[in-house]
Amino acid sequence: MPSLNRLIFIAAAIGVLVGWLIGLLPDDAGLRGGVLYASSLIGSVFIGLLKMILIPLVFTSIVVGVASLQAHHQVHRVWITTLLFFALTTALAMLLALVVANIFKPGAGMSLAMFADAMQDFEVRQMSMPEFFQHFLSGLFKNPFQAFTNGDILSVLMFAIFIGVALVAGGQRYQTILQMMQELLDMLLRIISWIMWLAPLGIMTLLIRLVAEQDVTLLLSMLGFIVLIFATTLFHGAVVLPALLYAVTRKSPLWFFRGSREALVTAFATSSSSATIPISLRCAEQNLGVPRRIAGFVIPLGATVNMDGTALYEAAAALFVANLIGVELTLVQQLVVFMTAMIASAGAPGIPSAGMVTMVMVLQAVGLPAEAIAILLPIDRLLDTVRTAVNVEGDIIGSLVVQKLADDGAEYQGA
Ligand code: ASP
């Protein structure tokens, strides 16, 4: 029996192949309908299971992580290193996008008329920068029960941080609660190991649907842009991030990719960093040896605020839209794109196509028409695959870097 890791890989390859074959069948073919229906059933059960475990997992892992860090007086160091790492890698990703987009000028020479209909029928929900901040800040603190039921990760995360700090501040008094949280986390990780057995089938079926439902003519018309985005995102994921990892920890990229591939493939297939959290945590702890207190803190936080792939895409796509409508963005305008894409990627939740929603803000910041999103939406499901995988990669590498720079190696019992 091949290892789970290998099974996931084989299943992903089969998924792409079958999806491609199914895509060749006519729309009304019975086989096509049947396979797509079965795929969507199995795929949604897999995603459903990941989502089922997600909120309790994020809550307990942040509580336990923060409590353990606080107990070791490491919390400030870990916070600062984590946020600096997130900001640095996001900035690098966007810089890369801007350089590449300036060199290759995607969209220049393409006819806007091709997209006129799509843009006309598209209604955007405009959100200005002040509105965005208001929305973001008011979303941070909510009734925890409401946040739990709505699957609102950011506010669950904030509540968990308070509980983690309070547990340590209370010392012996809350020992039972802390122990309960540790046991709960342990138990949830056990459930995740069961869910993982469905991962090969889940990933295969998600990829069958994804590939079969692509509109090939549309993809071909945008091929230049798609290839540019894929290549740049992959460069960031295969060269920039591993180089950073090596520079700080001396760990080889091969070792990293071997240990994290379950999470990367899941992110690719689900297009959701949040749904991938359970698997990212498992990879970081079990395969890459990141202590639970670090991984349990850095990964859920990263999945919500650290999105290198999304930032890269938003910056490149803004330049694409500008080229398409024949506007040359000045250096200052590109700086505005840089800053807004940084905020927009941090504000995007880790769900499919979330980057598209926050991108409206980037376009508006430099006066580009928000309706242009309509041009990008049909190809977004495809682009979201690699982008999400790189988002997740950034979080796992973040946990390794933070471990190296901020962890003094002290062990916390149970964590
Ligand atoms: N799907 C991405 C993620 O979950 C967010 C995005 O749309 O860029 O990380």
UniProtKB/TrEMBL annotation:
Localisation: Membrane
Superkingdom assignment: Bacteria
Protein name in the entry: Na+/H+-dicarboxylate symporter
Transmembrane segments: 7-25, 45-66, 78-104, 153-170, 191-212, 218-248, 317-344, 356-377
A GO molecular-function annotation: symporter activity
Keyword Zinc among record annotations: no
Record lineage: Bacteria, Pseudomonadati, Pseudomonadota, Gammaproteobacteria, Pseudomonadales
This protein's UniProt keywords: Cell inner membrane, Cell membrane, Membrane, Transmembrane, Transmembrane helix, Transport
Annotated membrane topology: Multi-pass membrane protein
Gene3D superfamilies: Sodium:dicarboxylate symporter
Keyword Nucleotide-binding attached: no
Source organism of the structure: Halopseudomonas formosensis
Gene Ontology CC terms: membrane
